[in-house]
Structure formats: C-alpha cells, structure tokens
Specification:
By secondary structure, the chain is α+β, with helices and mostly antiparallel strands. Helix content is 22%, strand content 34%. The protein has a seven-stranded antiparallel β-sheet with strand order 5-4-1-2-3-7-6. A six-stranded antiparallel beta barrel has the order 8-9-10-13-12-11. A hairpin with a 2-residue loop joins strand 26 (465-472) and strand 27 (475-482).
Length: 484
C-alpha cells in the first residue's frame, strides 16, 4: 500500500478543534431555544431529509468473500549496506572526498516476500490488483478463500493508473459484480475487503469522503476518497458500494505513521476496466495526451477572460506538433467541456485526456476572447511524446543500470544547473557505484549531457569505465562506473 505524505499538516488538529468547539455548547443553550428561534435560523426552502437504511454489510461480505483473493509476491529487494563504499580504499579515509562516498550506501539484494489483495473479475481466472503490488515480482501466487493456491501470470500492469491484471489457470470462479463508480457521491456507504497486515478476509466499512480527488504524482487518477480503514496489505482489494458491487480498487493511504489515519484512496472501477481491457488485448495500456500546459481558473482570471464562472482549464502553453496544436487550440483558451463533460478544473481535464485512447477524437468546448467555440482533437500518445522528448525509450543508461530523463525547466532552476539527466531508477553497475534514484547526471567524462541519447552515445565510446559527474543535493563529485 503506497502511503502519500500528508498534504495539510494541520488537518487533524483542525478537525479536533472544530469537534471540541461544537461539543462545548452547554445543554442550557438547547433548552433556551424555542421553535420560533429554530425556524428563523433554518433556510426557507429546507425540507426534512428522509431517514435511510444502512446497507446489509453481512450480506455483502457473504456474497463476495469467495471473490476476494490474497496476492503474495516473491522477488528481490535492493537494500543498503550498513556502510557506504570508498573508491579510495581503506587508506583513503583522509581524502576529502571519502565522506561523500561514505554517505552513498552500496545496495545489495535480498529475498523479498510481500502480500496484497485482489479480486476475481471473470470465471476463467482474470484478477485485478494494483500495479505496485506485483511490480518487480518474480513469482506471484494467488490464494483463494478455500486455501487453494495458484501461480499467477502477470498479463500486464500500468504504473500510471496503478492497475495490474493477473491470470490463474482455474475455471468456474465466482467473479464480483461490477458497479458504476461515476454514480458515487460523497456520503455513500462503502465497504472494503482485503488482507491488511496479512489478515485475510478483513472487512472494513465507511463512507465516500470525496470523489475525483487528485494526489501529488497521481494526476491521471480521479481517486475515490473514503474513511474505510485501509492498511498495508489491502492494496488491490475491492471497494464495494451499498448494493455489493465493486466501485473501486483500494490503492493508497494518507498517513504520518504508515497505518490508517482516517483517509484512504481507491481507483474508480470505471477507469480500471478500461485499463484492464487494454492489458488483456495488448499486454499494456496506453494513455492519451493533448499537449498543453494548463492551470486552474480563479475569480480574477475568470473576469480577465470574460467567463461566467471560475471554472475550466486555462491553456498557458501549447506544444508544437501536438494534438492540441493540430486542433487549433491556442494559449489563452479556456477548455470548459471535454467530449460533452464539464471541466471544473485543470486536474479534471488531465484525468479525462489521460483516460482517452491515443488516436481517438475528442470534442473540446472552449472560450476564446469571450466567445464559445468547439474544436475537435485527435488525442496523441503520452508514451510517444516521452519517446520523442528523450530521443529513445529512456533506457539509454541501461548498460549502466539506470533509467534517466531530462530535467524539466523547473527542476533545472531548483537544482541550479543548465542541464542534466535525473536518475529515475538505479541498478546493476550504477547502483554498485553508489548512484541512487534522484541523483542528477551532469556529465560523462567531463562532457555535459542534456539528453538520454547523448549519454548513450558517450557511454558507447568507452569499453572499460566512465566517470559520471553526479549532483546530489548541494554536493557534486565524479563517480567511476565500470563497463566491463
């Protein structure tokens, strides 16, 4: 279960403060209020809210417990040694560069075993879970409620949406009933079933706290936020609505401690089904790309752009030769609808574009200079755009054991460099040399690098080793990496 860092540090304190203030009101305050006083304070159009009936949680569990599975993975995990390495040897401790290398732990591999959850979506053995549950696994085992275990094949997984599809060799399995996550509203009852901390068949209930929630680093997923207790091990398990239909896949928690703190996030099942279909058909999932930089519209911007309300996605920049450019979108346009769906903010547009298959046409209702217009765009491919930017698949450093990408202009400004490549993954020779995820490669043998393809060409010119200039935080040093 991934655990995003808290977005608002004082949120919990604020909630408790509000509760304390409400609870402080003395009983005499209620006694002194008469009917006339209460009626004057109520809205004129208020109507009594009909009492609802809580869902039959026991029936939901009984109906679906056979469809929820445990997912165990086995693989290798990179861990840091207790002490870093020193390229200058034991006699080089007096070298002023030794301390830098001592702070760079040398990774090593050790067996790893972890557990998540999943659920059956077809009687012939298709299972949905999270991508982060099976990422890096060498062996995936699915355990059914009757204690039967099957080695599972990973048909594919998509890190962008955090969806994975597994297949086991079994027939006559009980699939869950799929619901409609678009119909969920705040306050609706939900129930999660999974294996938190390895405790199988654990059911927890709550309500929907928010819908369409965007998280840092996960702008492609409009998460369902709930207060159903979800913990490590619940990842990939189903989230049911009050009728017993699956409406989400439990994916992340919001925590300071690593455990449940009242906020959990699930991937909408409508989005997950689209990813599932792509993976089953092709073994992978592709995401759409419009090619614009966008921002939210506040009241001041709404007035400046002659809008009736502060809603929509304001286009700040259009990338050349992108889907947006070919459709005629310009900087200053405000996108208010996407395929007929109202766009409340920039995040909602990003989610809808990302969920659109590349090559599909989409209608865009925009406002330009205060006038409404409708444009049609043929959505591009996010993967193709990344390949074009990198000049290859980003694996030019694979000979060294690195996955790299160019720094964005904002990152270059933050780091204080004119160019460079950020390390997204480090393994093999690079990891053995002490290079870590997040390091910035500035040069190869003294030659500055700005693109992945340039680094590839420089590395291919050498057969024994290269010296990479690495920046980590405020420190810079050359790191020798063997190629033999």
């Amino acid at each position: 279960m991934r655990s995003p860092k808290p977005l608002i540090a004082g949120a919990a304190a604020g909630v408790f403060a509000l509760g304390a203030a409400a609870g402080w009101m003395a009983p005499t305050a209620f006694k002194s209020a008469n009917a006339a006083d209460l009626s004057m304070s109520a809205p004129a159009n208020s109507q009594p809210i009909a009492l609802g009936t809580a869902p039959n949680y026991r029936a939901i569990v009984a109906q679906n417990r056979d469809s929820v599975v445990g997912v165990t993975i086995e693989g290798e995990m990179k861990t840091a040694s207790d002490q870093g390495f020193n390229p200058f040897g034991n006699d080089g401790d007096d070298n002023p560069l030794s301390q830098f290398f001592r702070q760079m732990p040398r990774p090593r591999s050790q067996p790893m075993r972890a557990q998540g959850s999943g659920f059956i979506v077809s009687s012939d053995g298709l299972i949905l879970t999270n991508a982060h549950v099976v990422d890096g696994a060498k062996v995936v085992t699915v355990k059914l409620i009757d204690h039967r275990e099957f080695k599972a094949k990973v048909l594919g997984f998509d890190k962008t949406s955090d969806i994975a599809v597994l297949k086991i060799d079994a027939k006559g399995l009980p699939p869950v009933r799929i619901g409609n996550s678009d119909k969920l509203g705040v306050g609706d009852y939900v129930l999660a079933i999974g294996a938190p901390f390895g405790l199988e068949e654990t059911a927890t209930a709550g309500i929907v706290s928010a819908t369409g929630r965007s998280l840092p680093g996960d702008s492609a997923v409009p998460f369902i936020q709930t207060d159903a207790a979800v913990n490590p091990g619940n990842s990939g398990g189903p989230l049911f609505d009050a009728s017993g239909a699956v409406v989400g896949i439990n994916s992340q928690i919001y925590t300071n401690s690593g455990g449940y703190e009242g906020v959990s996030f699930a991937i909408p099942i409508n989005l997950a089904q689209g990813i599932e279909q792509q993976i089953v058909q092709t073994g992978k999932a592709e995401h759409g790309r419009l090619g614009v930089q966008i921002q939210n519209v506040d009241q001041s911007l709404a007035q400046s752009f002659k809008l009736n309300s502060p809603a929509g996605a304001l286009v700040a920049q259009v990338e050349p030769d992108s889907a947006a450019a070919r459709a005629g979108i310009k900087a200053g346009d405000v996108i208010q609808k996407y395929d007929g769906n109202p766009i409340a903010d920039a995040g909602e547009l990003s989610v809808r574009v990302n969920a659109t298959a590349p090559g599909q046409k989409a209608t865009l209702d925009i406002v330009r200079d205060g006038k409404p217009m409708t444009l049609t765009a043929t959505i591009g491919s996010a993967k193709a755009a990344m390949l074009a930017k990198n000049g290859d698949d980003g694996q030019a450093g694979s000979h060294l054991g690195m996955t790299l990408r160019p720094l964005t202009p904002e990152e270059r400004s933050q780091v204080g460099v004119a160019g460079g490549l950020v390390v997204e993954e480090s393994s093999g020779r690079a990891a053995d040399a002490g290079i870590q995820q997040g390091d910035v490669v500035l040069s190869v043998n003294g030659t500055p690098v700005d693109s992945v393809s340039q680094l590839r060409d420089l590395v291919h010119k050498h057969s024994d080793q290269v010296a990479l200039l690495i920046q980590r935080g405020d420190s810079r040093i050359f790191v020798p990496v063997g190629l033999g």
